[in-house]
Amino acid sequence: MKNISRRQFLTYVGAVGGTSALLKTSIAMGLMKEDPFKGPVKVTPAPIKNKPSVLILGSGIAGLATAFELEQAGYDCTILEASFRAGGRNLTVRNGDKIDEMGHTQICNFDKQDNLFFNCGPARIPGHHKRTLHYCKALNVPLQIKANSSKMAYFQDDKFLGGKPKRIIEYHTDARGLMSELLWKSADSNTFNQMLNAEDVEKLMDFSKAFGDLTENGKYIGSERAGSITDRMLDYPQPHAPMELKALLDSRFWYGGLLGAELYDWCEPLMEPIGGMDAVVKGFLRHLKKPPVLNAQVKKIFNKANGVEVTYEQGGEFHTVTADYCFNNIPAYFMAGIENNFSSTYQAGLNSVKRGHLFKIAYQMKSRFWEDDGIYGGISYSADAISQIWYPSHDINAQKGILLGAYTWDPKHSAMFESLTPLERLKVGAMSGEKIHPGYSKYIENGISIPWARMNHQMGCGMRMNKDDFKTYFHLLQKPEGRHFMIGDQISHHSGWQEGALASSEQALGQFNHLVATNRT
């Protein structure tokens, strides 16, 4: 191509290959840096005598990783956890487990089988989340491939095609075909003459035909890439009739599920720990010298001249402990209710962090009916409040399975579900599932719901800050206040992911090394 800028070139790469291709191309062109992670921070070893003590508030992934690295370097660590369990939002539930929702405690009634579990929080690990994968390897947490997308799954919208569900492969194929036809016509009408020479225009037309499966005269009439309305094993394949361009544009799928698999954090293949995401939590706990102190709710945090003093309540009694350093994994929006002596600016920054609303439903299905429909893992998308249905890709051909029946982070949709009882939520989710899979409800044996904004000791999932507050305060929260460090995915640019939590731990431990060196001189 001639007379084309790098920006124009990247625009074309993004249009054709999605955000994943765009990011990788930008890295290859030297316009973006790859993740610099080369391994965890080498923590400054503790002295043999008078070992410094460390308090870690909260046993989420960041807190566990911080304790692990500090203990490896010889520091005496105590983890205080407000909940009855460790792990924070890394929560996998099985038969008999408690879902600790404020006002609506639920008990998981899944059958007592190893394959019947549900990841209430993190549920997938991208191949470029190097920190998470490092710890899975270091802690001997076995992984398996997770099918995060399936073109045999569906998209359903009441306002699209009369509410009939559409296979994602059909939508993808028609979208590519119709847009390629427009590209072919644009190239044929000399639209690109000022940008490309005649040979390049011809190549562009050939590309559009190949990309969209067009006829020789640049027309899209359907493609067997989306399957066939005949038995393609015994009869000549006959493509589905293509959607009209207007119908495609009127649907909501093109700015949601259509590009879902193109997100960099959803790049295939993804992974998941065998048996549940809490295998990561269990891996840390196996390697810690001291288990977390559970049911210990922090009430006060005070910076002292040479350390930090913390008061917590456990079993109705108050305890005050001191340590040389403190790493705080408590959700920042809780800090307004915890007495402290932080600077007014630092406290204002903590107060500016708002909680995210994320909601999930899980159903135990008595039969894996989706496999009979050719779906083995992946996601179906709905324009209803449930947003998504996830199909398990492990234990294929087993009798039963756990289906994610709703996954929404839209505050409006989450608020609607939060206002309902657990039973009402399951009924609403089932009604939407019926639109994608007729007969859906008859397979449901039991279910649970996870409204993270109502879960005790969490009251939210991920962090939110408005643009001005982010600019003013976020960089301050990423730095220590005295000997107190905030950690967690809330102190990263990747809120809601374990990788962000681990990155925050890595950053804080690097700052810890600097502070230790300063205090020793």
Would you give an account of this structure?
With 521 residues, the chain is of the alpha+beta class. The protein is built from 13 helices and 24 strands. It has four domains: 1-34, no CATH class; 53-87 and 280-353 and 464-520, FAD/NAD(P)-binding domain, CATH 3.50.50.60; 92-153 and 357-454, Alpha-Beta Complex (Polyamine Oxidase, Chain A, domain 2), CATH 3.90.660.10; 167-251, de novo design (two linked rop proteins), CATH 1.20.1440. 31% of the residues lie in helices and 19% in strands. The strands form eight sheets. The chain has a four-stranded parallel sheet, with helices on one face. Strands 10-9-19-20 form a four-stranded mixed sheet. Strands 14-13-12-16 form a four-stranded mixed sheet, with no helix packed on it. A hairpin with a 5-residue loop joins strand 19 and strand 20. Helix 2 runs parallel beside helix 7 and helix 8 packs across helix 12 (467-477). The chain is globular, with a radius of gyration of 26 Å. The model is unreliable at 15-22 (pLDDT under 50).
Compute the number of structural domains: 4
Q: What CATH architecture of the largest domain do you see? A: 3-Layer(bba) Sandwich
CATH topology of the largest domain: FAD/NAD(P)-binding domain
Count of helical stretches: 13
Class of the largest domain in CATH?
A: Alpha Beta
In spatial order, strands of the major sheet run 2-1-15-24
Quaternary state reads: single chain
User: Cα-atom Rg, whole angstroms?
Assistant: 26 Å
CATH superfamily of the largest domain: FAD/NAD(P)-binding domain
Major β-sheet annotation = 4 strands, parallel
Runs in which pLDDT lies below 50 for 5 or more consecutive residues are 15-22
What is the molecular shape? Answer: globular
